[in-house]
Amino acid sequence: MFTKTPNLLGTLPRPQDDTPIYINGLNQFELLQLAALAAKWHEPARDALDRLVLECEKQDLHRLDVYEQQDYMPFDPTIKRTEGTVRHKETGEVFKVGRRGRRGMGAGAGLLEGQVL
Question: Dihedral sign, CA of 75, 15, 27, 104?
Fold first, then answer.
């Protein structure tokens, strides 16, 4: 999803123009927002993937102010996934969102059970 060019100039990470998205109707911006919800977006990035998602030049973390994080599972190397449970502050809707690296794609890489976009 992101350029592989090392960031030697100190600029923000930038998504590739041809980001593959496997959910019909979801665009790159919405995908970035969901990826941020699977991190602790209100804290500094914990690892390289969090940094890419949270500090991306197209990311708007202020749009996530309508959510509160209820639970967080940091990256688990056995299942290669990070997961967050969030609640929409206005509607009360609770859902889980997960994020996997490219090597974690495969069985179960789609939406988590009960997830709502």
Answer: negative
